[in-house]
């Protein structure tokens, strides 16, 4: 029973760390967007690429 509780606590810790990293990464991306403006395909691709390469988002996904 102790092993199960330890595994659950470790999972909970990883989940919490992942959420914190994802939140920080998404806040970085949202600061890049700024105000609402017309969006082009090039801007959308650049935004997606920056999300895929953001270290905090990648760490958050890893921990999740």
Describe this protein with a few key phrases:
64 residues; mainly alpha; 84% helix; elongated
Verbal overview:
The protein is mainly α and 64 residues long. The protein is elongated and about 55 Å long. The mean pLDDT is 87. It is built from 3 helices and no strands. The longest helix is centred in the first third of the chain and has 32 residues, at 2-33. The two termini are 24 Å apart. Helix 1 (2-33) runs antiparallel to helix 3 (55-63).
Q: Helical region count?
A: 3
- Principal-axes shape call: elongated
Chain-averaged pLDDT: 87
Overall strand count: 0
Q: Indicate the proportion of strand residues.
A: under 5%
Structural class assignment: mainly alpha
Cα distance spanning the termini? 24 Å
Radius of gyration: 16 Å
- The arrangement of helices and strands along the chain is HHH
Low-confidence stretches: none
Q: What is the share of helical residues? A: over 70%
Taking the sheet with the most strands, its summary is: none
The oligomeric status of these chains comes to single chain
Layout of secondary structure:
Blueprint: H1 2-33, H2 41-53, H3 55-63
How would you summarize this macromolecular structure in one to three sentences?
The chain has 64 residues and is mostly helical. The chain has three helices and no strands.
């Amino acid at each position: 029973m102790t092993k199960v509780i330890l595994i659950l606590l470790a999972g909970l810790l990883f989940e919490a760390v992942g959420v914190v990293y994802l939140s920080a990464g998404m806040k970085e991306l949202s600061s890049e967007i700024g105000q609402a403006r017309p969006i082009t395909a090039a801007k959308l691709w650049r935004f997606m690429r920056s999300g895929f390469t953001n270290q905090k988002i990648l760490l958050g996904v890893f921990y999740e």
